[in-house]
C-alpha cells in the first residue's frame, strides 16, 4: 500500500491536533498557502471512510469524530443539569430555519415574547451565536446557528434540516401546529374563491 504523501499527512496532523472544527483556510495557514488543501482534505476523508473515526464536514468546517454507528460505545449515562424548555426548542428551530434573525422576528414568528435567558441558554450550549446587526433603525442584533449545532444534530449543513413533510412523518409536529397549518391552507383556498367572485362580478 502506497503511503500518503506529505500534504495528506500534514492535513491529517493539523485536523487531528485541532480542538475545534477547521475551515480550509485555517488548515492552509498551517500547511502552506500554496498547498492544495481541498485535495488533502478529500484524501484524508477517503482514507478514514468506514473506520472507527471519520473526517466529517460541518458547514464549511472539518473535524474528526467517532463513527456514528459506534457512538453508543462511548456514551455514558449522565443526568442532564438543564433541559431545553419548549420556548428554547421553538427559538432554536426558528433561528435554524430563518437565520440570521432578530429577537423581534423570533417573537413575531412565535407569537409571544421570549426571555433573554432563552437565547442565553442556547448560546451557552454553543448552538447559537450573534451574527451581526441588521442595518435598519435601531440596528438590532441578529442570531444564527453554529458549527456546534450542526455537529450535535449530525448535520452537514442547514440544507439537511428536515422539511415540513419529514417533521409530520416523524410525528414531531404538535397537533396545534397541524391545526394552524390546515387553517392557513383553508384561508388561502377561501381567498382564491373570493378573488374569483370579485372578478366575475366585475
UniProtKB/TrEMBL annotation:
Pfam families, sorted: SMC_ScpB
Keyword Cytoplasm in annotation: yes
Keywords: Cell cycle, Cell division, Chromosome partition, Cytoplasm
NCBIfam families membership: SMC-Scp complex subunit ScpB (TIGR00281)
Full protein name: SMC-Scp complex subunit ScpB
Source organism (scientific name): Sphingomonas rustica
Amino acid at each position: 500500500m502506497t503511503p500518503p504523501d506529505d500534504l495528506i499527512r500534514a492535513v491529517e496532523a493539523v485536523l487531528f491536533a485541532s480542538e475545534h472544527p477547521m475551515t480550509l483556510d485555517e488548515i492552509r495557514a498551517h500547511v502552506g498557502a500554496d498547498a492544495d488543501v481541498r485535495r488533502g482534505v478529500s484524501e484524508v476523508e477517503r482514507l478514514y471512510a468506514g473506520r472507527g473515526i471519520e473526517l466529517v464536514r460541518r458547514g464549511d468546517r472539518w473535524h474528526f469524530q467517532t463513527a456514528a454507528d459506534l457512538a453508543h460505545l462511548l456514551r455514558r449515562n449522565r443526568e442532564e443539569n438543564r433541559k431545553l424548555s419548549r420556548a428554547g426548542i421553538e427559538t432554536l428551530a426558528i433561528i435554524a430555519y430563518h437565520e440570521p434573525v432578530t429577537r423581534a422576528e423570533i417573537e413575531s414568528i412565535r407569537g409571544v415574547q421570549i426571555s433573554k435567558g432563552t437565547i442565553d441558554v442556547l448560546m451557552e450550549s454553543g448552538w447559537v451565536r450573534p451574527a451581526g446587526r441588521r442595518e435598519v433603525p435601531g440596528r438590532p442584533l441578529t442570531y444564527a446557528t453554529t458549527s456546534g449545532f450542526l455537529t450535535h444534530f449530525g448535520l452537514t449543513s442547514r440544507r439537511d434540516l428536515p422539511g415540513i413533510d419529514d417533521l409530520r412523518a416523524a410525528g414531531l409536529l404538535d397537533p396545534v401546529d397541524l391545526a394552524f397549518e390546515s387553517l392557513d391552507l383553508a384561508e388561502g383556498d377561501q381567498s382564491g374563491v373570493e378573488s374569483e367572485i370579485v372578478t366575475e362580478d366585475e
